[in-house]
Amino acid sequence: MKELNFDLMNLTRHSGEGSFATKACRARGLQQLADELHGLGFKLKSAKNLAPKHALALVRCWKGEGIADATIRNRLGWLRWWAEKVGKPGLIGKDNEAFGLAERVRFNGNRAKRADDETLAKVQDARVRLALKLEAAFGLRREEVLKMRPALADNGDRLALRASWCKGGRYREIPLTHPKQRALLDEVKALCGDGSLIGEGRNYHQAVKGYENELMRAGLRNAHGFRHAYAQWRYAALTGWKCPAAGGRTCDQMSGEEQKRDFRARLQISHELGHGRIDVTDTYLGRRWAARNVRGAAA
Asked: Do residues 281 and 270 lie in contact, with contact meaning Cβ atoms separated by under 8 Å?
């Protein structure tokens, strides 16, 4: 094994950040970057030798191979993680436009999907059906609904998600604000006991496979639209009006006080969905501003 590959392998092994799947993906990605740098003629002896020129060379190579901008952004994320771990957090700028990458499209139509009785009736497996209900009621990801142990997560007035259950290893809390959320959580606890929806005698990967097969048999392409519907429901509850994706106003049409309420609602929803940036909510709620050159108001 080349020296850089070995160094990066040790970095990833000693990092506790993220779920098992996230860490495994990052480890594979960093090994790929090391191999590509070696192929480009950079014989780095240590991970600490990373420099801006290496990022530029990789991006040029990826663009020459016709790799999509979205994929390049993900790979730059691995590079930034690498730089941070070797004590160079500002080595690779956060602005992807500096690398000539297209702006990430935040909103591509309203993708909200309601978990109505007709849709859920197509799902035969009780555990998968409850998983879908949890995704819709709390805006959870598939990984989170499968790994979560409801008996431990239920804190009465809120759902407390442990870092090991969440994407990126981010602990978060989601408030229980509706009686249907409480009833659903009690139903899931009655089935799972002290365990999770993975169930006894299965591991996480087997549970994912069963989940995917069940959705396929039910004719459901995916359940991510339930998270969109949750976000839009929460926005209406927090602000008192519909979000732009559901036909509501953008901030250009709001008063100063309404803009502040919009900002606070989006910030809260971003946290509840497990994200760390307000701009991510554009994907779920629609663009905050109709015009790109307009700046938002902070709370």
From this structure: yes
